[in-house]
Amino acid sequence: MSKLAVIIPAAGSGSRMGTRIPKPFIQLKDASILEHTIRAFAQVDNVKEIVVATSEEWFEHIDRILEKYASQVNRVGIVEGGSERQHSIYNALQKISSKIDLVAVHDAVRPFISEQLINECCEAASNVGGAIVAVPAKDTIKKVNSENTILETPDRSNLWQAQTPQIFQRQLLIRAYEHANRDKFLGTDDASLVERIGGSVKVIEGDRRNLKITYPIDLKVAELILDERGRI
Ligand code: CTP
Ligand code: MG
Fold first, then answer.
1. Could you give the C-alpha distances from 198 to 130, 191, 193, 202, in angstroms and in order?
2. According to the model, what pLDDT value does residue 232 have?
3. Ligand 1 atom with least separation from CA of 108
4. What phi and psi values does residue 102 have, to the nearest 5 degrees?
5. Considering every ligand atom, which ligand is closest to the CA of 163?
6. What pLDDT was estimated at residue 223?
7. Residue 186 and residue 195: Cα distance in Å, rounded?
8. pLDDT one-digit tens code per residue, 26-51
């Protein structure tokens, strides 16, 4: 069984949410959003390491959360986040041990990831190099110019909305991040860094519950999902 490490970027400021405390630390029923996320991964058998990237003022707080799950994985760690998500992940990547086969990157603010999707993604990443969870685009996507005039309407049937986890063979992901760093390339997800060095990445059809808590409305949806789960 491949040994999996999980990098959880949690260093964002949450400007679209507009709350005083950053999104990962907002309470959702019995735990913070970040703790729900950590819990989801800690219960997966092949998860051996978890590294969270955040700002220094939250280190102690996260330490207390990680302590609770440390016995379920081999190693846990915290690193300082960067100004961009990509920089936060780069810092965390330096902490992953060489025993690890696969590295998953998963947003702190997607607490509803299922074990089945993590496993499917791991299997595909072991086979081809990388795999990400995504859902078919539900809205028609428009490409526009700087005046917002539509230039093009790409065929929706081949468009997917990338989510996380995004899982890669460790050495491939390290190489992708080193190249991006050297070229000062800033991507909006991890797969884009791997794609640009020629790595192969598969899409695994995910679940719309795996939402990224971004706007206040997403918090309301998250509470509904937890209520529903409690009833099952
Ligand atoms: N993130 C990070 N380091 C950054 C920016 C973002 O670790 N410099 C993390 C966030 O904490 C979040 C994940 O990346 O868990 C996805 O980012 P996003 O949803 O955009 O969160 P924020 O950047 O915090 O929100 P916003 O863009 O609204 O400011
Ligand atoms: Mg952001």
1. 11, 11, 9, 13
2. 63
3. 15
4. -120, 145
5. 1
6. 96
7. 13
8. 999 999 999 999 999 999 999 999 99
Atom of ligand 1 nearest to the CA of 54: 7
pTM reported for the whole predicted model: 0.97
How remote is the CA of residue 24 from the centroid of ligand 1, in Å?
A: 9
**Token couple for 82:** 């960067």
What ligand has the least distance to the C-alpha of 189? Answer: 1
Output the residue whose Cα is nearest ligand 1's atom 26. 14
Alpha helices in the chain (DSSP H): 33-42, 59-69, 85-93, 115-128, 170-183, 191-195, 216-231
Share of the chain above pLDDT 90, in %: 98
Q: Closest Cα to atom 13, ligand 1: which residue?
A: 107
- Distance (angstroms) between ligand 2 centre and the Cα of 45 equals 30
Ligand 1 atom nearest residue 212's Cα: 19
Judged against a pLDDT cut of 90, whether residue 231 lies above it is answered with no
Residue ranges per structural domain of the chain: 4-132+163-231
* Structural contact between residues 179 and 198, judged by C-beta atoms closer than 8 angstroms: no
Residue range 165-208, pLDDT digits in tens: 999 999 999 999 999 999 999 999 999 999 999 999 999 999 99
Please give the CATH topology (third level) of the domain spanning 4-132+163-231: Spore Coat Polysaccharide Biosynthesis Protein SpsA; Chain A (3.90.550)
- pLDDT tens-digit profile of 90-126? 999 999 999 999 999 999 999 999 999 999 999 999 9
Ligand closest in space to the Cα of 16: 1
